[in-house]
Amino acid sequence: MRSSFPPLSCLLAFEAAARRASFSLAANELNLTPSAVSHQIAKLEQLLDVRLFERSARNIALTEPGREYMSRVSLALDAISTATDNVRKGVRNALHLHSAPSFASLWLMPRLADFARQHPGIALSLSSSPTHSDFATGQVDLDIRYGVPNWPHLHVQPIFEERIQPMVSPAFAEQHRIETPEDLLQMPLIQSVVNVVQWGDWFRGRRVQFAPGQYAYSFDRTSMALDAAVQGLGVACDSSSIAADHLNQGRLRKLFDDRWCVKVQAHFLVCPQRHLQRPEVANFIEWIRTHAIDAEGAASGGA
Asked: Which Gene3D superfamilies match (predicted)?
């Protein structure tokens, strides 16, 4: 039993008033009187022993605890609304997936048609942002995260081993004579600031002195850094797995063979342990692992 769960009527009144910044507008939306809305919110504040709104004769404003509570309550109510809509529409076997943006656009999206063919009964909902999912809201079944894994109390499973290496467009390679790692110091380098492995890590592996900050372009997305390399703006140092479509279609090429790459595990399937019992989650994990094995084999090809 969720003994700490406030009455839903109080939460609805609070969310509407916070969103509309008005007890009167919230009352109109909920078909209540303003005094009823005010009573529900006062009851919620008493239960929480926290003041959620600053009140004046003309307006209301969320307190700092109120803003924090609103951010979580609105997500939880959205999850309830989505679940209700799915039931009404007869949607079953729904899978709510969240992913790091570049992985979603460059690696996952080109393969989703195969998942749909193999699992036509699963309704997939995909969202993407660099912020990790908060499983407490109940909105996400499975999260694909990028970074150094430090997520206690969650199931964490690496997707594949990535090879980080310099890549350029064919036109750039033809215009510039690049034969050694030292040659790159004279080239316009493209940085993806969010990458686990940076240019300095790659140069250290080759025992080449590199001064941080020697970048012609910096981006906060791998997808943009790779697009810049495709456009011939310079040399990107990134995952050949994530850049697989660019490499396979000839938009990019590796400058050196895989002996000169940095190997890392940086993309992970993350979820609460209990989610693994859901067939939709288990099916997706099995499907993505099959594709990941193929991707690892393809990424290990030569320059």
From this structure: Periplasmic binding protein-like II, Winged helix-like DNA-binding domain superfamily/Winged helix DNA-binding domain
| Domain count along the chain | 3
237 strand-pairing partners: 166
Distance CA 200, CA 207 (A): 10
Q: What is the pLDDT of residues 3-45, one digit of tens each?
A: 568 888 999 999 999 999 999 999 998 889 999 999 999 999 9
**Phi then psi for 132, rounded to 5 degrees?**
-70, 150
Residue 53 belongs to domain spanning: 8-87
Residue type, 130: P
Q: What is the pLDDT of residues 107-150, one digit of tens each?
A: 999 999 999 999 998 889 899 998 898 887 777 899 999 999 99
301 within 8 A of 248, measured Cβ to Cβ = no
Burial of 3 (0-12, 13-18, 19+ CB in 10 A): exposed
- The residue out of 51, 67, 87 marking a domain boundary is 87
Question: Is residue 190, in this structure, part of any structural domain at all?
Answer: yes
Residues 14 and 73: beta-carbon distance below 8 Å: yes
- The closest alpha carbon to 229, from 175, 184, 170, belongs to 170
